[in-house]
Amino acid sequence: MPDKKDNASILVVDDAPDTLEVLQRNLSGRGYRVLTATSVDEAIRILEMETMDLVITDLKLPKVSGMDLVRYVRENLADTEVMMITGYPTVEGAVEAVKIGAEEFLAKPFTDDELFAAVQRSLDTLNLRRISKAQVVSQLDNLCGLIGESKTMLRIYDNISKAAATSATVLISGESGTGKELVARAIHYNSPRSTAPFIPINCAGIPEGLLESELFGHVKGAFTGALRTRTGFFQAAEGGTIFLDEVSETSPAMQAKLLRVLQDTEVCMVGAREAEKIDVRIMAATNTDLQNLVKKAVFREDLYFRLNVITIHVPPLRERGDDILHLIHHFASKYAQELQVPSPEFTSKAYRALKGYTWPGNVRELENLVQSVLVMTSGREIDVNDLPPHMRFSLPGSTSQGKTLAQVETEHIQMVLNSVDGNKTQAAEILGIDRKTLREKLKKVGDET
Ligand SMILES: Nc1ncnc2c1ncn2[C@@H]1O[C@H](COP(=O)(O)OP(=O)(O)OP(=O)(O)O)[C@@H](O)[C@H]1O
Ligand SMILES: [Mg+2]
Predict the structure, then answer these.
(1) Number of DSSP helices (H) and strands (E) in the chain, helices first
(2) Poorest-confidence range of 35-49, 150-164, 419-433?
(3) Cα separation of 258 and 264, whole Å?
(4) Distance between CA atoms of 298 and 359, rounded to whole angstroms?
(5) 4-135: CATH homologous superfamily?
(6) Residue nearest to atom 16 of ligand 1 (CA)
(7) Beta-carbon neighbour count of residue 215 at 10 Å?
């Protein structure tokens, strides 16, 4: 927990060397670890490499204002507090700074005691937030490899622990590669069923004709080729959990059978006369909007309600802020170990490109990318040119505020390209330009990065 005894780290940003020196001396004297920067750009470079507990920034800085740094920290660093100092105190300035997320606002001249008190208040706030995070995570014995500290992930950990305490059916929704199966595993392995099997079944991957006997088993002679009686996944999962992945892909006949299992807690082997009672928890996942399929009468409404007792939505990676960087670090060291190469450093430009990318394939895409980049670079520093072209020109942030027209254009082109899987002909058509113009624009951007 950050307080001065544990060397809380503070980044001080001011363009006046005297002020910087005084602040650094005072704060270091109190036992804090202090780094300094003289511009917002330099501060951001440091923040991309180092986790700081507190940023103290002057409002008036050359080129980019301290207000933008406050905004950057709030949008990107959930685990860092910000404090603003200024020699030109105005009510509007203070209100604006606090509104966009500065924890404290200190007007010059201030005494050492005022400074220390404000720093301590900021770190106390941070402590409080961290305690609640630690509490959420400590509810779980086993995170099953889930990485992430964003608010989104904290909410998911909380949902996991609540779902684990019951035996209710869970429906997990989210784009492909967001971690739905990991969430299901985490629920199972934190539940009283954890010593019984967790069996994932990809409903789209088993041919329709086989699915029923795979799930429920069959008796000898039930169909041509059924030479022996064989149990199915449901019997094998007794006492545990069955995870039905891509449940929207099941046929109407299968949906009717699943509904019976959920209603009566019994399954009937193919060819058997009588059903048998089972004790199996069911979880299901979908990456399409199941409710929409219900409206279109492609998915049974009664089954939807039976599955949807507890709903957990896993948001896309691009909405999880700094988790992208945590995941990059995690997979970089995992694959570096596997390849027996040193864990690579990423340049700040490479980080920016990765953070700004939209990740349509979510965590799976990120994992594959880190692995393949590591193979190509074998442990040396990874720069933006080591990334695939479609990631090189992704820029952070989703609003156009403060951006040049060229930046907004580039981001828009990138977004459209992503939406059509990089198909330039389709992208050019959507953008209303010809392929040649698109190629030239891309080339120009590629040259600049
Ligand atoms: N938060 C996370 N932390 C660490 N690894 C993760 C996280 N989320 C997903 N992964 C990894 O990403 C990959 C995809 O995850 P998973 O299979 O759970 O996604 P999914 O949502 O079920 O995808 P699909 O819809 O394609 O089935 C796996 O290798 C998983 O380990
Ligand atoms: Mg899955």
Answers:
(1) 19, 12
(2) 419-433
(3) 10
(4) 29
(5) Response regulator (3.40.50.2300)
(6) 179
(7) 25
Does 186 or 413 have the greater pLDDT score?
186
Does the C-beta of 363 come closer than 6 Å to ligand 1? yes
Distance 146 CA to ligand 1 centre (A): 9
Closest ligand to Cα 184:
1
* Strand pairing report for 276-277 and 266-267: antiparallel
Residue 176, ligand 1, Cβ within 6 A: yes
Q: Compute how many other C-beta atoms are within 10 angstroms of the C-beta atom of residue 355.
A: 20
Secondary structure class of 172 (helix, strand, coil): strand
User: DSSP class of residue 9?
Assistant: E
- Please tell me the least confidently modeled range out of 155-159, 244-248, 365-369: 155-159
Report the candidate in 382, 290, 394 with the shortest Cα–Cα distance to residue 332: 382
Q: How far is the CA of 178 from the centre of ligand 2 (A)?
A: 8
Residue 145 beta carbon below 6 angstroms from any ligand 1 atom: yes
Mean pLDDT, the chain, as a whole number? 87
Ligand 1 pocket: which of 147, 154, 178 to mutate (most atoms <8 Å of CB)?
Answer: 178
Residue 5: which pLDDT band, with cuts at 50, 70 and 90?
A: very low
Evaluate whether the domain defined by 336-448 bears CATH number 1.10.8.60: yes
Alpha carbon of 132 to ligand 2 centroid (Å): 30
Q: Report residue 172 as tokens.
A: 């997990």
Mean pLDDT computed over 244-268: 94
Read off the DSSP letter of residue 37: E
With tokens 């069911």, the residue in question is: 282
Distance 76 CA to ligand 1 centre (A): 22
Quickly count: other Cβ atoms within 10 Å of residue 27's Cβ: 22
CATH of 151-313, one of 3.30.930.10, 3.40.50.300, 3.40.50.10320, 3.40.50.720: 3.40.50.300
Paired tokens of 395? 């820029």
- Whether the predicted model's global pTM rises above the 0.85 cut: no
CA of 245 to the centre of ligand 2 (A): 6
| Tokens coding 186 | 């985490």
At 145 the three-state DSSP class reads: coil
Residue 167 has pLDDT above 60, yes or no: yes
C-alpha–C-alpha distance, residues 267 and 305, integer Å: 19
**DSSP symbol at 264:** H
Domain pair 4-135 / 151-313, same fold: yes
Neighbours of 297 (CB within 10 A): 9
Query: CB of 174 closer than 6 A to ligand 1?
Result: yes
Domain spans, the chain: 4-135, 151-313, 336-448
